Sequence to fold (551 residues):
Amino acid sequence: MFLALVLAGQGSNDASPLLWFGALAALWASAQLMPTRGESGTTALGICVAVLAVWMTATNFFANPSYTVVAPYHAALLFGGYLFGRRAAAERGLVYGTAVAFAVVLAGWAISQQLAHVEQRAHGVLVTPATLASVINLVLAPGLVLILLGERRPAFIAPLAILCAVLAATLSRGGWLALLAACALGLLLIHRARLRPQTRGVAIVGGMLLFGAAAAWLINEPLHVPQLGGSGETLSGASFRARLELYALALSGINPATLAYGAGYHAFYYLLETGRDAVPSYAGSMTYFVHDDYLQVLLELGLPGLASLLFLVASPLAQAWRRLPRLNPGEQVALIAILAALTSMAVHALGDFPFYIPLCALIYGAALGMFDAILRAARNQGTAVPTAPARPSAFRRAAVAGAATVAFWILALPVAAEGAATYARKQWQAGDGQSAAYWFEAARRLDSRDWRYHWYAGQFWTAQARGQSDPAAARLADAAYSASVAANSRDVRPLYGRILLHSMLGKLLPNPADAATLQEWSRHAVELAPTDAVMRAERERILRAHPLGRP
Fold:
């Protein structure tokens, strides 16, 4: 499990199918080492997790003009985490201890980078400080609930105190508010369960939070972490203004078609590229995220996707509120701790993007699975005669095997394509053009939906055509760029590569683009990236070098 978290954490920064596949494989291996305790069976929550995962994958395959391998892997990590949580619920103490150890290592790495002046704000291997805060909250919030209800071991409290300090050091206001919301909900559910938070526990939690704030001040103050925006504006004010601009842009992209099935996973990145004038705060910067996961899911996955996500957020709370008074104290404590973790991420998603981070999706899914398994076990305890779990029917076993085979195929092909492309680049750097050509072409055929592999091949063949004046290489480059544009009509890079090929090496092509076509391509490139100085300069060059009326 620790290895799965490490790989998912690295994969949250480096968008690599190989890392995500490794995390899923490690998670599967961990689950196989745990005993089966009747966790089979369907629940409304499990069905909703599966529906959301299938919807993410299906819309990405069939309704996304910019297919991305990220979508099926994010879906797999969420659903895989859920299945792991179902299996691991009986070993939740061991699982939670592993998660705490991972979070402490992650937090220690982040703080060491900050103290070494590598980073101004702690975020470690993760994308942003807010992402680190989300991960810490998923581990810290349950621990604070356990301390409130009587946990006193110093070996348990000490690592959580470290996490409090690192959470404060991230300077993530969304992370702080999310933890406060999780603690408030925890207290409310403790009251609902008729449990009594111990006075000493309250004092310990308060002391840990004060220690965290003081430690963060001691870390950040000597490093002169900036607190102002670009023109004397406070950091909070600049961040809030930027978010409002992102929200307005996302809302502008919603229409009847996107409400039905979404604009496509990670479509907001391309919406931002074409609408940067509406988001001056992000001039010169890029982001894939609206910084409100619910709004982004509505834009990218439509109303079905948003409804599924809201069900995952609200259903555990509703079920717990109804069932808590009838459970035994051990089950009550476990459910309240898990709900604190789920709440921290659900609240943080209002102002950041934890549901779009692979590591967060994995942990959130595991927490959902544990929650479901605990409630199901409590429900089964009420039966008069415990019965052994029924053996699944042949039809069900065949359906599960078929679904697993399809899922493996969907997830394995991008790994093979990434491996082929990586090896091709190494061979190219080593000067072995023949081997590089073979593996570039293999990569684009293994995962033909992914525009990047066509683009990589186009760059390679362009270099070969330029260096050797080779018409065959020029034709292969043109075919690769054309396939890349067809696979992703939203990205400007393959179109730009094709413009350069036809305008500079057109004499090597059997049918070079004429002046009108080059001007149309350059105009469209500026539409796709209107603030990109390179695209504008290329447009001007095309207009001068290829005026209408000249070939």
Q: What stands out?
A: The chain has two domains: 2-224+239-381, 448-545. The first helix runs from residue 2 to 11.
